[in-house]
Every structure is written in structure tokens, then in C-alpha cells.
């Protein structure tokens, strides 16, 4: 059963809507600034949506509402599947609860502190909370799933939603990922690993420093082509195929040969009845870390020796972890629609022999590929077509 995309919502450091984010991306804008949201930690380049860390619940509700409006749908939608994931989910809430508890114990006035700091509903602090929040918002009473696959989460969610429609379990699904990962623990963890940049994100650049954390919500409405056509819905593009594999190698480092990532790309192309020559644009994972960019460039060179235009948009949006693949899918669909390839923002001195897009490029785009490679060896690939 053919699966099409009829609605997109994107909230990022580039803008609070899909159109604004896309426009600013193609204008070469950068949503990254030097920030110090937590006094105990030094200032770092970060990609905030607002002036302070966003609330993941509110981001989810805004993105779901925007996606439905864009698709021309109104709740309740009881038969709509929900697959919305996050790699950090409610971590900020948990950190704040622990901090409050520690401060209360230190001051020995726990009862007073508790009276002024109401504890959130327990179910809304769980990792799957954003999916259940979205389900209540649209009145969905069917399948609800909340994947958590590190930086591969967004594409994994789109793949799961597509599979629900392909297998006839539902005719419509709202999918994507939401991240508000800028918390003291997340920053401290990535800093301890030596993965954070100090001035900005420069994917595939020989002077790249590491990743820049960013916030975002990217939600798509998927429908069977049949019901989309029946209601004369606007169609951004088709989900042609997807591939999901795991390195089974290391908790943080990618497997050096890239064999599992290569298998995911081949799996995706095979499912979509595509060959490497059919791909007109690749939205790379491109985290601007030393290991990821080197391995990803090698994989692209191996599978696409004929040369395919490539860009990573994390130099503009920051690395939004689990939401990054869903953002990439949204930008791929805009490239299909407008026949403009988005730039690899931050790339000044290319290290690898890729057809990297430095400035927006006009091109005929029929098929695009979106890559996501996450910690734990999670590999996710999505093929989209006009």
C-alpha cells in the first residue's frame, strides 16, 4: 500500500514553522548561538528555539497541532496511529525533580519546598509520555508507539508509521520525534566524551570540532495514497523505503567498516525498488564529529561512487538528537517540492571527496535519501520520492 506525506510541522532554532525553517535554511541562516543556560556550566554554542530551554510536552502539542492543520485534518481522529519518539524525552523533568529533592534535603525544609513545587503527573514523566500526550490530543484510540533509538529515532518513527499503513493496521498515522535535550546532565555527558564543539558545527569540514546540541520538533502526517486522494489532500511526497540495522559494536563509537550502515542503505533501496543511481540528493547525518563524518563519507563514496549531492543541515539547526532524522525527512520533502537542495551550513574547507552542497542548489529532485546513525550503532535510512 502506497504511503504519502500530507502534513508536516517543524519547529526548530531556524524558525517556529516549516516554511520559516526552510526559508532561513536556504538563506544560509544559522540557529546556533553562544549560550550559558546553566551557571554551573561554561558557555557553549547551542541551538535554542526560544531564549531558554523548551518544554518537550509543549513542543509536542504545538507540532502535532501544526501538522494536523497543514494536512487539513481536525481531531478527534480515533483511527489514527501515533508513532512519536524522543531520545531524551522527559529527562529535563527528571533532572529538575532530582535537583529539587536534593536542595530540599540540604535545606531540611522538604515539606515547605514540596508545597511550592507540585510534582508533575507521574505518567507524563515517563519516556513514552510524548506519544501518549499526542494520542490524547488527537483522540487516537488505536496503536500508540514511542520509539527510542538515539539519533535514529525520527526515521525509526517514520518507518514504523509507514509499516502500520502498509500492513493495513491503520490508514493514517502521525509520526516524528521531539527533543528538548539541553539539560545539565546531557551537556556534561557529551562534554565528558569530548564530543561538543566550542564555536559551532561544521559538518564534513577538516576543521570540524564536534556536535552542537539543538532543540526541535518534527511531526509528519502519513496516509495511504487512497484516502489522501479521496479527500484531495495536498501531498508532499511518498515514503518509498526504509532500512533499520544495528552495529552491535560499541555504546558510542560507530563500527569502523560501516557494514551495518551499508546494509541499512541497501535494505532501504531494495524496499523502494531503487538503485544508487536513482538517488538525486542525500541528507546526511553529518554530526560534525570526527568519527561520524569520516565513516559516513566513506559509506557514501562506496555506495555512490558516481557522485550524489550531499548536505547536512546540522550546521544550521544543531544536532537535535532523536528529532534529527525527522527534520532531515522534512527538509528532503521540501527539496522534492521546491527542487532546491539545502546547503551544508558551516562547511568551508571540505575534507572528503563528496559533492557537498555549500550554497543552495537548484536541481531536479525525484528521489532523496535521509541518513541517521545513532549511539549504540543504530542505523536508520529513509527514501522519499515525488
Broad structural category:
alpha/beta
Describe the sheet with the most strands: 11 strands, mixed
Individual helix count = 12
Q: What's the helix-strand series?
A: EHEEHEHHHEHEHEHEHEHEHHEEEEE
Mean pLDDT level = 94
Give me the side-by-side strand order of the main sheet.
Answer: 5-4-6-7-1-8-15-14-9-10-12
Strand content: 15-25%
Overall spatial form: globular
As a percent range, the share of helical residues equals 25-40%
Number of domains: 1
Q: Class in CATH?
A: Alpha Beta
Look at the structure and name the CATH superfamily: Thiolase/Chalcone synthase
**How much is the radius of gyration in Å?**
20 Å
Q: Could you tell me the CATH topology label.
A: Peroxisomal Thiolase, Chain A, domain 1
How many beta-strand elements?
15
For the termini, the CA-CA separation is 16 Å
CATH architecture: 3-Layer(aba) Sandwich
Fill in the keyword field for this structure.
single chain; 386 residues; alpha/beta; Peroxisomal Thiolase, Chain A, domain 1; 11-stranded mixed beta sheet; 35% helix; globular
SSE map:
Elements: E1 3-12, H1 18-26, E2 33-35, E3 44-46, H2 56-71, E4 81-85, H3 91-107, H4 110-116, H5 129-138, E5 144-145, H6 153-166, E6 172-179, H7 184-193, E7 216-224, H8 225-230, E8 237-246, H9 259-271, E9 281-283, H10 290-303, E10 309-311, H11 314-317, H12 324-338, E11 340-341, E12 355-356, E13 361-362, E14 367-374, E15 378-385
Parallel strand pairs: 4-5, 4-6, 9-10, 9-14, 10-12
Antiparallel strand pairs: 1-7, 1-8, 2-3, 6-7, 8-15, 11-13, 14-15
Helix pairs in contact: 2-5, 3-4, 6-12
